[in-house]
Design brief:
The protein is built from 6 helices and 8 strands; from the N terminus they run ααββααβααβββββ. The protein is an alpha+beta fold and 183 residues long.
Length: 183
């Protein structure tokens, strides 16, 4: 393969990667803003944020049964297919520097690893809320997104749910919260 073609392919991959990171950044910030608005518990007590973003799953049947939203079957199938691809990852550290929320609510401008969270729970022996925002799942047009959240409060104590979002006029909006669970 000619060097020019290799460079062109690498530039295309790099451009796609930057666009993907921007969309995930938008979802990350939307989720944080939603949590600060809707979840008075963590707003009052404060919270940490996990560095890890685990791979999420998407079940169109559960989605339709839980939300009642009228989303096309094609879009739901795209979301399900996207959820099967990809892998676990780490949120970019620069996201934590960009957070512009109430300083009293977020206990650190740095994320916390699962390993360090376990150490913190053992050391402090009190309720410590840590938010995990899993890897967002998108349709092909990046018009819809599902993202699962987990709130750990003690070792073995957690709750979670999935947010379903739609991009309207360049801004992500939460349409539904579903799949709620608690341990």
């Amino acid at each position: 393969m000619k060097p020019r073609k290799i460079i062109l392919i690498l530039l295309l991959i790099w451009n796609f990667s930057l666009a993907q990171n921007q969309v995930e950044r938008e979802i990350f910030m939307t989720v944080l803003n939603n949590e600060m608005t809707e979840n008075t518990d963590i707003r009052k007590s404060g919270f940490e944020i996990y560095c890890e973003k685990n791979k999420s799953s998407f079940d169109p049947n559960e989605f339709q049964a839980s939300t009642g939203l009228n989303i096309s079957t094609e879009t739901l199938m795209e979301l399900e297919e996207y959820s099967k691809k990809g892998h676990d990852g780490i949120w970019e550290s620069k996201l934590f520097v960009e957070i512009k929320l109430q300083k009293s609510s977020i206990k650190s401008r740095k994320c916390i690893t699962e390993k360090n969270a376990l150490k913190m729970y053992k050391r402090k022996k009190t309720r410590q809320t840590i938010l995990k925002i899993n890897r967002p799942i998108f349709d092909l047009k990046k018009e819809y997104c599902a993202v699962s959240l987990i709130l750990n409060e003690f070792t073995g104590s957690a709750r979670g749910y999935t947010l379903f979002l739609k991009k309207v006029e360049g801004k992500w909006n939460v349409l539904s919260e579903y799949g709620i669970w608690i341990t």
